[in-house]
Design goal:
- The strands form three sheets. A five-stranded mixed beta sheet has the order 8-9-10-11-12. The protein has a four-stranded antiparallel beta sheet with strand order 4-5-7-6, with helices on one face.
- The chain contains six helices and twelve strands.
- About 30% of the residues lie in helices and about 25% in strands.
- The protein has three domains: about 30 residues, no CATH class; about 80 residues, Alpha-Beta Plaits; about 140 residues, Sulfite Reductase Hemoprotein, domain 1, CATH 3.30.413.10.
- The longest helix has 18 residues.
- With about 250 residues, it is an alpha+beta fold.
- It is globular.
- The termini are far apart.
Length: about 250
């Protein structure tokens, strides 16, 4: 099997795998759609901030899946709905039907803010994780950064929002919020470093803004926060952050 670059009759270019005869063409990449393993269909994600969905959104997603004969609808690890198996010729129509609920950016950006039910619903909750998640989602949704960022918020130390293994983790307790940075759950897992504890919600917003500003200015392209922290070290980050936010007591 070989890979060849070919030009179509219309003048467009693309790559094909040559396996004897005939040529098997790979589908094009489309912003906001993720090419699937079969090489011809796509996945389109539906926005559900903090994992919350309304009955109206569920009904619309179900109608779209039936209308375009989409075989699979999956809940992702980021608490979003994924329409899997969308044909290329249906992509524009699916995006149009979803409107602002479609996730259109899949590059290096804030991918999602996930949350547990928090104090609003959970008997163990100590902080309002849903409110914080919704405010952060609205503020940072799909903003570009050197690498993708995932945020996990938990309303208590049981950490059901996977706060310890997200790029930015926020975990509640009776005395306030704990902020972690540099977590990862991939092939090289890493717990995030604890930067500050017992913060108010306003202090969390300030610290996150400074953290993201610092990360954007100093990270290398495609460098996730876990590798970024291994390179600059926790001590280096603390030293620089103390200059930016001396009024927030960072963890020693």
């Amino acid at each position: 099997m070989t890979l060849a670059n070919v030009t179509s009759n219309s003048g467009t270019h693309g790559w094909v795998f040559v396996i004897g005869m005939p040529l098997l063409c790979m589908a094009e990449q489309v912003e906001g759609a993720i090419l699937q393993r079969d090489g011809s269909t796509y996945a389109v994600m539906v926005r559900s901030p903090a994992g919350l969905v309304t009955p109206e959104l569920l009904e619309r997603v179900a109608a779209i899946a039936r209308k375009y004969r989409i075989s699979t609808v999956k809940i992702t690890s980021g608490q979003r709905l994924d329409l899997i198996g969308v044909r290329r010729e249906d992509l524009d129509a699916v995006f149009a039907d979803l409107g602002p609920d479609a996730v259109r950016r899949t590059g290096p950006c804030v991918r999602y803010v996930r949350s547990c039910p928090g104090i609003r619903h959970c008997k163990n909750g100590t902080q309002d994780s849903l409110a914080l998640a919704l405010s952060l989602e609205a503020k940072y949704r799909e903003l570009p950064f050197p690498a993708k960022l995932k945020i996990g918020i938990s309303g208590c130390p049981r950490c059901c929002g996977d706060s310890r293994t997200r790029d930015i983790g926020i975990m509640g307790s009776k005395s306030g919020w704990t902020v972690l940075f540099g977590g990862n759950s991939g092939t090289r897992p890493r717990f995030g470093d604890v930067l500050a504890t017992d913060l108010t919600t306003e202090e969390v917003h300030d610290l996150i803004a400074r953290l993201l500003e610092y990360f954007r200015a100093h990270a290398k392209p495609k460098e996730r926060t876990s590798r970024f922290m291994e390179r600059i070290t926790l001590e280096g980050l603390r030293s620089d952050l103390l200059i930016l936010i001396p009024y927030i007591p960072l963890e020693k």
